[in-house]
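STRUCTURE:
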């Protein structure tokens, strides 16, 4: 009796499944569409979200959708678009669950052999914005997955069998062999490394400033890249010419080397003579040093002779007469005495200042100098010389005087 009842129950269940598969849009399309016990309650009005994954692994429909490991929805469909390589996972989430618009999705596993599920979380940088709405799509750049158990075991197998365990053993053995007996040197090296790191840490600010300066330099060079390119292009012809004249440059450098050797030899041989010459110059230099301010003053008088700067300051605003006679070596007059009136007589003299006599150029010989035309030589005046100047208001000896009441022939000086 029990066996027919079991057979009848299985047949009824099969008919129900087949009826659901053959029904229209209102019926179930398969076992995945059948409600399962213990599933997440999404309420009467959930909202739909689609996430794109590069690899969904063994995720199946009706898998849980969690937020902070709390089930808030389930996976309804997993499809592969015709025009893409990313799988699209469609999820329904309870309307009361609020998620940011830039939420990320990640495939996780509940345990080592547990089920796969989709974990929704805010962005890792913590800058959540907006609200996840119905029909939103989480792009492939915001999805990720945890490594599979098979991948972890495969990596561990490679490490243990053909990986770096044997190499680590070899490295450890060689290190022990290299450090054996060199403990003081290793200890000293570690101490120096510690000092180096401490010094670098103390100068971290300077290092940062140097790096900033290098960054500014790089920015400046980048902004002047065109000028640098032009300069490098202009240097190319010069470098080419230098390359062509390399032999001549080498010959010139060799000649300079020979000249240096000869100059060194000359200096070595003439060292004593040079020292003697310098010692002989020492008294002259000492006398010039002793002259001090007298030498510049004498040069100043020489360049302004016969009127020095001080004399010009005295006669400023007045006038001063000079009697100039140039004679040849034989005593003949080259230029007779000059007077303002052109008569050859003495020039007018200021009432304040007496004229400064000048020595005649050269020494007169036996030939006497005749007085200029229209000018008489006073008695007692040696031949070839200009009569000495007279004071204002006086008459030179031998000069006829004018009768009383007649005008004077000598102009009087005045202040101009």
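SEQUENCE:
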């Amino acid at each position: 009796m029990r066996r027919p009842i079991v057979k009848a129950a299985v047949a009824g269940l099969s008919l129900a499944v087949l009826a659901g598969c053959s029904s229209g849009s209102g019926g179930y399309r398969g076992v995945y569409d059948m409600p399962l016990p213990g599933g997440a309650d999404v309420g009467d009005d959930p909202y739909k979200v689609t996430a794109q994954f590069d690899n969904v692994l063994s995720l199946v429909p009706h898998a849980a959708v969690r937020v902070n490991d709390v089930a808030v929805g389930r996976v309804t469909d997993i499809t592969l678009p015709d025009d893409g390589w990313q799988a699209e996972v469609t999820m329904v989430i309870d309307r009361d669950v609020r998620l940011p618009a830039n939420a990320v999705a990640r495939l996780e596993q509940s345990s080592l052999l547990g089920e796969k599920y989709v974990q929704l979380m805010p962005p890792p940088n913590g800058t959540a914005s907006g609200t996840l709405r119905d029909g939103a799509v989480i792009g492939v750049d915001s999805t990720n997955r945890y490594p599979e158990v098979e991948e972890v075991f495969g990596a561990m197998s490679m490490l243990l069998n053909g990986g770096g365990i044997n190499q680590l053993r070899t490295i450890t053995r060689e290190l022990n062999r290299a450090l054996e007996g060199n403990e003081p040197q290793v200890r000293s090296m570690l101490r120096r490394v510690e000092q180096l790191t401490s010094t670098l840490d103390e100068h971290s600010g300077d290092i940062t400033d140097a790096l900033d300066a290098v960054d500014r330099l790089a920015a400046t060079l980048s902004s002047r890249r065109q000028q640098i390119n032009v300069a490098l292009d202009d240097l190319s012809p010069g470098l080419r010419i230098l390359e062509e004249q390399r032999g001549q440059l080498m010959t010139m450098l060799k000649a300079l080397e020979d000249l240096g050797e000869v100059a060194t030899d000359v200096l070595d041989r003439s060292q004593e003579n040079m020292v003697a010459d310098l010692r002989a110059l020492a008294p002259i230099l000492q006398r010039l040093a002793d002259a001090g301010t007298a030498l510049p003053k004498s040069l100043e008088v020489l360049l302004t002779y016969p009127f020095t700067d001080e004399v010009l300051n005295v006669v400023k605003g007045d006038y001063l007469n000079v009697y100039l006679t140039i004679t040849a070596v034989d005593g003949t007059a080259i230029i007779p005495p000059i007077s303002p009136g052109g008569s050859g007589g003495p020039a007018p003299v200021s009432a304040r200042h007496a004229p400064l006599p000048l020595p005649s150029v050269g020494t007169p010989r036996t030939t006497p100098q005749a007085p200029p035309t229209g000018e008489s030589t006073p008695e007692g005046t040696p031949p070839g010389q200009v009569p000495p100047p007279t004071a204002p208001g006086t008459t030179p000896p031998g000069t006829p005087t004018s009768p009383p009441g007649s005008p004077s022939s000598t102009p009087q000086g005045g202040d101009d």
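REMARK: The longest helix spans residues 246-269.
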